[in-house]
Amino acid sequence: MRCSSRLLVAGLMVAGTHAAHAQIEVDTFHNPGDENDNFGEAVAQSGDVVVIGAGTGPNAEDVPVGAVYVYDVTDPGEVLRTLSPSDGRVLDLFGSAIDIEGEIVVVGAYGHSLDGLASSGAVYVYDITTGQEKKLVPEDPTAGEGFGQSVAISGNIVVVGVPNDDLSDIPTNDNEGSVYVFDLTTCNQIDKLRAPDATPGDRFGTSVAVAGGIIVVGTPGHGGSIGGAHTFDTNSLQFLNTIVSDSPQSFSAFGSTVALTETALLIGAPLASSDDETAAGVVTASDHAGATELHTFSSGAEGDEVGRSVATDSSPSRGAPSLAVIGAPGDDEAASGAGAAYVINADTGDIVTKLTAGDAQLFDLFGSAVSISGRYVVVGAPNEDTNGNNSGAAYLFLLDPPCPADLAEPFGVLDFSDVFAFLVAFGAMDPAADLAEPFGGFDFSDVFAFLTSFGGGCQ
User: Fold this and answer.
1) Dihedrals φ, ψ of 451, to 5°?
2) Gap between the Cα atoms of 155 and 210, Å rounded
3) Each residue's pLDDT tens digit, 27-65
4) How many domains does the chain have?
5) Quick one: which of 309, 281, 69, 322 has its CA closest to 207?
6) Is there a domain that residue 24 lies in?
7) Which contiguous run of DSSP H or E holds residue 342?
8) Which domain holds residue 344?
9) What is the mean pLDDT of residues 172-188?
């Protein structure tokens, strides 16, 4: 076990653009690095903070170790910090998996070689306020297993997926998979989770999520390629349920992506057929136990790969519907393979809006990674070419609130409590009060927008 602490290097500067997009506003984060960095292959948000991964991006010595860039949504033209491992090596793939909660960022580097064990993998944890770095490694590192292919954080625990892990102590390439749980304070490994029905090829740990006392683990090879997900109790780490689709399909990659809301579990199957369209992709929502399937979502278009990425808001606004963002990097609406993403009501499956890049180009793969926090959505396009071939980009969208003036209980009724809530939010420069252009600034235009909405009864 290793739990060393170091300080980060200050970040760089990068230009951004701002344009309108139907009911949203858009900013573009272009890669501050170079071509083939895959900037945008992983994205995550917490409050106003956005982190964007570039798994083959450069470190300070211009070595392609991987990099993670930290932004604030209120000033998207500036990189606040550039994260890179203090002991990084070529093709560590640092930044290919990321998560954030508050000021803590967790970064997977599954190509990292530990003590001569090639691609055994590592995970790094950063406090973006102090610059402290910690390193998490398994108690049983093994060459080629790629510890850190998926990561998640909640409170004081970090969950790490290792889908290439073998049940045998001798590497067999059976890829049953495993998940490690760490204590964030001590960096100690708490437990190593396995699927109770593990079989070769399961790839348990391909995706992970943790929220509301539940750990969910995607297992796309479960049941002889049918796919599934397994849930565990966060406190006891006891196995809870195995979840499979009500309409299983072989080789659909069901379980490639997972996400949680307070009431729903979303599972992506990006290679599933829908309406006889191959690899249209499907996202299935169920209750946490998997006993009741709530809805399924798909574009129904061949090759869209809906569900290649999926994210939910870890702290939705009071009274607001639970939203999910679903990536469809194969979508051809803007251009062949340019990609798209959908914002949906996670409880009902109803589409809120469809997102595409304003500067979409062929095979940008917009939608390869997605995240959402409050009204802000970030979508990664790792093959975007502005700064060179596959240099990558990420796009920031600001969603219109369903009713800007309905800010306090009782929701659905506009009264003095909403006025008071707006004044508090405005004084605190909370995004809930940022209702009009210029977004990111709080002035009379926001007050006027609130009064207009309030006076109109949110009609």
Assistant:
1) -65, -35
2) 10
3) 899 899 889 999 999 999 998 899 999 999 999 899 999
4) 2
5) 309
6) yes
7) strand 340-345
8) 16-398
9) 92
